[in-house]
Amino acid sequence: MTKTVLIVYAHPEPTSLTRQFVIETIATLEQQGHTVLQSDLYGMNWKATFDQHDFPDRVDNDRLSFVQESGHAYSSGQQTRDVIAEQQKLLAADAVIFHFPLWWFGMPAILKGWVDRVFAYGFAYGYKGQGNRYRYGEGMLKGKRALLSVMAGGPAEEYSARGINGPLEELLFPITHGMLFFPGMDALPTHAVYGTGQLSKTIVEKEIAAWQRRLKHLFDEKPIPFRHQNGGDYQQNILAKHIAADKEGITAHIDN
Amino acid sequence: MTKTVLIVYAHPEPTSLTRQFVIETIATLEQQGHTVLQSDLYGMNWKATFDQHDFPDRVDNDRLSFVQESGHAYSSGQQTRDVIAEQQKLLAADAVIFHFPLWWFGMPAILKGWVDRVFAYGFAYGYKGQGNRYRYGEGMLKGKRALLSVMAGGPAEEYSARGINGPLEELLFPITHGMLFFPGMDALPTHAVYGTGQLSKTIVEKEIAAWQRRLKHLFDEKPIPFRHQNGGDYQQNILAKHIAADKEGITAHIDN
Fold first, then answer.
1. Interface contact flag, B170 A239, Cβ < 8 Å
2. B4-224, CATH topology level
3. What residues 132-191 of chain B have any CB closer than 8 A to a CB of chain A?
4. Is the Cβ–Cβ distance between A224 and A187 less than 8 Å?
5. CB within 8 A of A62, min separation 6: which ones?
6. Which residues in chain A have Cβ-Cβ distances shorter than 8 Å to B108?
């Protein structure tokens, strides 16, 4: 069955490895018959900073509360056009792929600003106006898949279990768990290319081939098994005593 | 002895809790005789997106490589004025305090964009033009202290050792370890205020008093004991076998 996939990417250089991957993503998915939507953040000149201009019609003109104004703008249809367009793409998508270079162990600011602005109250949090009731596996984006494709300058070993940077998937937990699984998406294990500053043409070709193979399983791969907030593993949003009883920290939220 | 402290903050609303903390920081530090420098990112209309405009004099006009152009701009004195000014403040500071609301478990985009743009090659990475030789405890910013003051909407329990969001300090590891300790700064344990959406005036006063007390120890508090890259705990940037032998993941990089 054909699906719709949204690609959100954050690199301005058309010949960069990030953009080469984007081109491959589009080609591979279209070849499979899928519909591809794109958000080329640099190309769109995406406004990164979340500020008063996101709220043309304020509840409170004297004091800016982001949560309050976000909820009001979303529920009253007063969001800015660029934000509405991105939300509509997200709603249309069966899967979302993010392509970006890893800058300081996270997203480039332009992509973080996409999340800050698009993930509105009522849309990605405060679902159904019920605070934190629907979250981590439930929410507006439930049933969709999400996949990070990151380009890291450093070598793979430095992102390994005992590598000096910390394991990549733990560094990205605030994104996979906190931004993607939070509003309901199933986050797949991150796809990374390492040592991107000095890859030979041969290695680039191998990496692209590996990515094409991976993409073919976009809809049947097993997501990261994050525990669902309302699935019985938590009591008042704390891990229940019998769950991962000997563990604490971010990895305890993965049901391995 | 009087010191110089840089405060970098990211909230546009003057009456927000973030900004109330900023006011207290300035008052408390000045009362102690310290010199306070400020970077009010919203007030400065800080450019969040790192792009071609950061490199007015390019090495390569055909292809944009951020690392290459960052290194060239830094070493040849061709950086933009706003970036140079921030680097000079960092160099003048004995400590840097970051005040920001926690948005999606990380920095607001405007602050991430401050790091993306100001932490140039040759300044915060690629120190002395020697790639990753000086890093994690060594580098241009060695000897300075850094402290995050974050405002979290959710309750403290959800950020506890087994809370559903993950422990706050682990979520912020990409910042404390990856952005602050990386170029040499000693990162102090994060100061957080939780449940910021619904604090009574009494609680706010208590939180501000706690922050004032904490600030008095800015220069004698013990930093997070991150392991130094070149201190003997790593072999080729992997934890040596005898170090934290039973551990892996981000917490293994803390020498508790």
1. no
2. Rossmann fold (3.40.50)
3. 132, 136, 153-155, 157-158, 160-167, 170-171, 173-174, 177-179, 182
4. yes
5. none
6. 49-50, 112, 116
CA distance A63 to A60: 6
First to last CA, chain A: 30
Which residue, among A169, A171, A200, has the nearest Cα to A187 in the 3D structure?
A169
The helix (run of H) or strand (run of E) holding residue A7 is strand A4-9
Residue that is written with structure tokens 């998406």 in the block: A185
Nearest C-alpha in B relative to A67: B197
Nearest-Cα distance to chain B for A229, in Å, is: 8
For A131, B44, B116, the CA distances from B59, given in Å and listed in that order, are 50, 29, 19
Mean pLDDT on A109-124:
98
The domain locations on chain B are: 4-224, 225-256
Residue A235 CA to residue A123 CA, distance in Å, equals: 25
Q: What does the pLDDT profile of chain B (256 residues) look like in tens digits?
A: 899 999 999 999 999 999 999 999 999 999 999 999 999 999 999 999 999 999 999 999 999 999 999 999 999 999 999 999 999 999 999 999 999 999 999 999 999 999 999 999 999 999 998 999 999 999 999 999 999 999 999 999 999 999 999 999 999 999 999 999 999 999 999 999 999 988 999 999 999 999 999 999 999 999 999 999 999 999 999 999 999 999 999 999 999 8
Q: Count the neighbouring beta carbons within 10 Å of the beta carbon of residue A115.
A: 21
**B106/A174 CB distance under 8 A:** yes
DSSP one-letter code for A15: T
Q: What is the pTM of this model?
A: 0.98
Asked if B164 and A251 come within 8 Å (Cβ–Cβ), the reply is: no
Q: For residue A49, which residues of chain B lie inside 8 Å, CB to CB?
A: 42, 46, 48, 108-110, 113
Q: B104–A113: do the CB atoms touch at under 8 Å?
A: no
DSSP string, A196-246: GGG--HHHHHHHHHHHHHHHTTTTTSPPP-BPPTTTTSEETTEE-TTSSTT
Q: Residue B107 is which amino acid?
A: M
**pLDDT of res. A140:** 97
pLDDT tens digits, residue range B107-142?
999 999 999 999 999 999 999 989 999 999 999 999
Q: What kind of architecture, by CATH, is found in domain A4-222?
A: 3-Layer(aba) Sandwich (3.40)
**ipTM of the complex in this document:** 0.98
Contacts of B250 in chain A (CB under 8 A): 166-167, 170-171, 250
